Amino acid sequence: MSASLSVGARDLPRTAARRVADGLALAAAPTFALMAILVGAGGSDVGQMLCAGEQGLQIGGMTVMYMLMSVFHLTPWLRLIQSGKREAA
Question: At what angle do helices 2-42 and 75-88 cross, to 10 degrees?
Fold first, then answer.
């Protein structure tokens, strides 16, 4: 019996670590999307924006990078949505 308890005790930290990793994976895409919006909306110098007459989002280097990173990190969300559809059916 002690062997089964030790195996279960060993799996507990692994399960907790897995939950943390899953949570971080789900947090990545929205975080990068928010960073893309923030950099795009306020990435330019205010003086340059006023003088150049530019309006709206500034789609440039870092904004594009954050948008791509957000897209690449959508996989955990797609898996979550897919598993929800399977459970509902």
Answer: 120
Whether the full predicted model's pTM is greater than 0.85, yes or no, is: no
The rounded distance, in Å, linking the Cα atoms of 28 and 25 is 5
Which residues lie closer than 8 Å to 48 by C-beta, 6 or more apart? 54
Q: Is 43 helix (H, G, I), strand (E, B) or coil?
A: coil
Contacts with 76 (C-beta within 8 Å, 6 or more apart), sequence order: 22, 25, 26, 28, 29
The pLDDT score that the predictor gives to residue 87 is 77
d(CA 37, CA 39): 6
* pLDDT per residue as tens digits for the range 36-57: 888 888 755 544 444 555 555 5
